[in-house]
Amino acid sequence: MNKSEFERRLIEIRAIESDDDKMLIEGYAITFDKPATHDYGGRKFTETIKKGALDKTDMKDVPLRYNHNDTWLIMARTRNKSLKLIVDDIGLKIEAELLDTQSNRDAYKAIKAKLIDKMSFAFRVADGGDSWTFGEKETVREVTNIAKLWDVSIVDTPFYDSTSIYTRSLELLESEEKRLESLREVELLKEKIKLKGKM
């Protein structure tokens, strides 16, 4: 997986009390139609994942990781049904039963103690699966089709209020702005050629 090809978002995760000592965690990885706004270079960047964005998403084999770390032992996985991904009217709900390992016990204790209370998901938008609106002071992105969910991950550093969580989106923002500027330049050039032709 090329890490430049996916994006990440943060949401909350919590431990669930269990009578049989199972290590259960749950939370919403995605909430539909909830705009997230961040300041970027004196401008606002607002992004919304629209309801229906997961209708065609590949979620066949999604691991639950710690800090998106490929070298960390996978905590749960859809393939063996220890991780469930449930799309409902609110968004994408995560339910996981952690395997009884020392690293999972430590992570579960940290979640119960609210030392770790955020979760992130890595994804790739389908071609044409988002739209951009560029205003003078705000750029708005709506994600309508997520092609692939790479992983869900508990994370120990809550970056939600930082633009660093939106690094990939901001790269896309800059790319789209450059593309738009190029299109404007082409249109201006066409207009100049038309004007010269009329002289």
Descriptive account of the structure:
The protein is of the alpha+beta class. Helices cover 22% and strands 38% of the residues. It has a five-stranded mixed β-sheet. The chain is elongated and about 85 Å long. The model is unreliable at 158-168 (pLDDT under 50).
State the order of secondary-structure elements, H for helix, E for strand: EEEEEEEEEHEEEEH
- The coarse silhouette is elongated
Average pLDDT figure? 79
Number of separate strands: 13
Per DSSP, the total helix count is 2
Gap between N and C termini, in Å? 56 Å
How many strands, what sense, and barrel or not for the largest sheet?
Answer: 5 strands, mixed
Structural class: alpha+beta
Notable features of this structure?
199 residues, alpha+beta, five-stranded mixed β-sheet, four-stranded antiparallel β-sheet, 2 helices, 13 strands
Entry summary:
The protein has two helices and 13 strands. With 199 residues, the protein is α+β, with helices and mostly antiparallel strands. A hairpin with a 3-residue loop joins strand 11 and strand 12.
List the helices and strands and how they pair.
Layout: E1 7-12, E2 14-16, E3 24-31, E4 36-40, E5 43-49, E6 63-66, E7 76-77, E8 83-87, E9 91-97, H1 102-112, E10 118-125, E11 130-134, E12 138-143, E13 146-155, H2 167-198
Parallel strand pairs: 5-12, 6-13
Antiparallel strand pairs: 1-10, 2-3, 3-9, 4-5, 6-7, 8-9, 10-13, 11-12
